Amino acid sequence: VQLVESGGGLVQPGGSLRLSCAASGFSLSSYAMGWYRQAPGRGLEWISGINMSGSRTNYQPSVQGRFIISRNIATNTLFLQMNRLKPEDTAVYYCMRSDLLQGQGTQVTVSS
Predict the structure, then answer these.
(1) Which residues contact 77 (CB under 8 A, 6 or more apart)?
(2) Closest to 35 in 3D by CA, of 61, 67, 65
(3) What is the model's pLDDT at position 45?
């Protein structure tokens, strides 16, 4: 059972990235999932979630309207589309299962 994030990198302010979280050993359709991030010197911060059925999503206000969480049950992958990125979005991003199983994270750096 594991989660593996990918898709991070260096991007200029205003740019976009799409993060992926490949799940193995369980089905995403059986759990609510979320994306979290940890900026340098700060604690873990929840930014977005999707319920078990995939029918409902929610977002932290600072990313509402810029980020979109989604999933593909066929490939068992969770996504986070990040648009209009800002320097303050720089962090390590983690996907997390509702019982706190998390991946190793992927670094996102927003800088010119």
Answers:
(1) 20, 21, 22, 23, 28, 71
(2) 67
(3) 96
